[in-house]
């Protein structure tokens, strides 16, 4: 009785719509009426979680007006999943699964996004027909090829998982395992770009105080970080240097100037910290000669650092920082440059690089301050005044380490160590008079530091 009353109400309202100003959905005016009537009908049942009665009018909406609204497809997945779960026979269940798979093709025809819809088909097979391992893998692969950098983050992770399962199912050879690293490379680049874009959007939203966009950008940033961690966990069992290097060595010998191959070798060896091998050195040099980019400059810096050629290494990291366009990559290059300059005792330049890194990426602010505090501490003797008796740099080191703790709780351990070491170099209370110092007074530290601090005693 409730269904009949509901239907009569909808038909009455749509009669007025049809007679007055019926909007066109589908190919004819009657299609518009049928579309609006069935859309209202299925939605009422859907709101009541009555998926069984929602099914038929929902199907008519898909048939008559497939471009009505994207929500018709999103809700359709829920309707079909419910019918699959409650199917009384295997045949009935298969019917609804096939219908769900076909739904994604209709969605593509109506709203595009073919690559991600193909991945949704793979996801459906994983859920209901998980033994079709090769088909699932091929669908994720096809989806990635169609979507490119617009592949949904979750599908990047699932594509890598499906690749692992497929290669295990065929008992892949060492040469075939290179496919896994191709997929890993693709997923990593896609997710890293998503992370960079979200970070950039978050910075813009923060500057304009757009709270809604800040929340959305932060969520996307958190998702990308989580997904990057997920693919790293998936690849970890296969990513030891002794497994990766043999996969690429023969390919490199055969094609030492293949740009795409060089990019894959250098990127994956760097990601998994296999940068002390001759293969990495040779591939990096060849890549930078053939196609110098911000990324290849970063690789050259890494390679020269491993060779302890610090001055040349820092130059390449500076080149990379200047050439990168996204803030996350600039931050990474600047921070590496700061670390190397510190090791070569170029403290002033290292401090500038550390602060630049923090400027690009606020999450590095604490680590940058720890780096600077370390340099102040190392300079306590060389920058001492009053005949070497007053080590003002130790006060600066303490200040900077305390600042680091306030910026990032995760660096507290390192900061506390520096603060303790700095405190041990402060003058004893009884010695302060002979040094011409007053506790709590302002004190300017010269040398390369050039900062004012506060006099304190042990």
Question: What does this protein look like?
Answer:
This protein has 458 residues and is an all-alpha fold. Among the domains are: 1-112; 373-458, no CATH class. It is built from 21 helices and two strands. It has helices at residues 2-20, 29-47, 51-64, 71-85, 90-111, 114-128, 133-147, 153-169, 178-208, 211-235, 241-254, 259-271, 278-290, 294-306, 310-323, 327-343, 347-360, 365-378, 392-407, 412-423, 432-435, and strands spanning 442-445, 451-454. Strands 1-2 form a two-stranded antiparallel sheet. Helix 4 (71-85) packs antiparallel against helix 5 (90-111), helix 7 (133-147) packs antiparallel against helix 8 and helix 14 packs antiparallel against helix 15 (310-323). Residues 8-22 have low confidence and may be disordered.
* Radius of gyration, taken over Cα atoms and rounded to an integer in Å: 31 Å
Largest sheet: 2 strands, antiparallel
- Anisotropy-based shape: elongated
Number of contiguous helices = 21
Low-confidence stretches: 8-22
- Spatial order of the strands forming the largest sheet: 1-2
Structural class: mainly alpha
Number of strands: 2
Beta-strand percentage range:
under 5%
What average pLDDT do the residues reach? Answer: 89
Helix content: over 70%
**End-to-end distance, in Å?**
87 Å
Return the string of H and E elements. Answer: HHHHHHHHHHHHHHHHHHHHHEE
């Amino acid at each position: 009785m409730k269904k009949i009353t509901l239907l009569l109400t909808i038909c009455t309202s749509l009669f007025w719509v049809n007679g007055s100003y019926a909007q066109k959905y589908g190919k004819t005016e009657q299609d518009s009426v049928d579309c609006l009537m069935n859309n209202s009908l299925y939605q009422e049942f859907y709101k009541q979680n009555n998926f069984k009665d929602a099914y038929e009018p929902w199907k008519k909406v898909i048939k008559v007006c497939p471009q009505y609204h994207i929500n018709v497809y999103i809700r359709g997945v829920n309707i079909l999943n419910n019918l699959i779960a409650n199917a009384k026979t295997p045949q009935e269940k298969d019917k609804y699964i096939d219908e769900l798979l076909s739904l994604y093709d209709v969605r593509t025809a109506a709203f595009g996004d073919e690559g991600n819809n193909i991945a949704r088909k793979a996801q459906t097979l994983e859920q209901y027909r998980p033994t079709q391992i090769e088909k699932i893998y091929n669908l994720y692969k096809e989806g990635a090829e169609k979507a490119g950098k617009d592949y949904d983050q979750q599908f990047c992770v699932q594509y890598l998982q499906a690749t692992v399962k497929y290669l295990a199912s065929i008992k892949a050879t060492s040469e075939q395992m290179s496919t896994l690293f191709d997929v890993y490379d693709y997923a990593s680049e896609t997710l890293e770009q998503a992370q960079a874009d979200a970070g950039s959007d978050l910075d813009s939203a923060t500057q304009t105080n757009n709270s809604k966009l800040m929340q959305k950008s932060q969520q996307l940033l958190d998702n990308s970080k989580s997904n990057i961690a997920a693919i790293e966990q998936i690849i970890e069992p296969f990513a030891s240097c002794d497994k990766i290097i043999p996969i690429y060595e023969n390919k490199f010998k055969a094609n030492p100037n293949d740009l795409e191959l060089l990019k894959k070798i250098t990127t994956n060896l760097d990601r998994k910290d296999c940068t002390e091998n001759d293969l990495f050195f040779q591939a990096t040099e060849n890549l930078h000669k053939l196609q110098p980019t911000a990324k290849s400059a970063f690789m050259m810096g890494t390679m020269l650092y491993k060779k302890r050629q610090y001055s040349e290494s820092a130059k390449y990291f500076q080149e990379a920082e200047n050439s990168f366009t996204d803030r996350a990559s600039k931050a990474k290059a600047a921070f590496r440059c700061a670390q190397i300059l510190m090791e070569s005792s170029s403290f002033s330049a290292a401090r500038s690089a550390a602060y630049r890194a923090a400027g690009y990426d606020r999450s590095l602010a604490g680590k940058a301050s720890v780096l600077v505090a370390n340099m102040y501490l190392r300079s306590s003797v060389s920058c001492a005044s009053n005949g070497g008796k007053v080590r003002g740099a130790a006060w600066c080191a303490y200040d900077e380490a305390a600042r680091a703790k306030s910026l990032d709780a995760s660096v507290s351990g390192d900061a506390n160590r520096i603060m303790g070491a700095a405190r041990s170099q402060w003058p004893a209370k009884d010695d302060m008079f002979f040094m011409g110092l007053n506790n709590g007074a302002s004190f300017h530290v010269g040398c390369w530091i050039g900062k004012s601090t506060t006099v304190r005693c042990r």
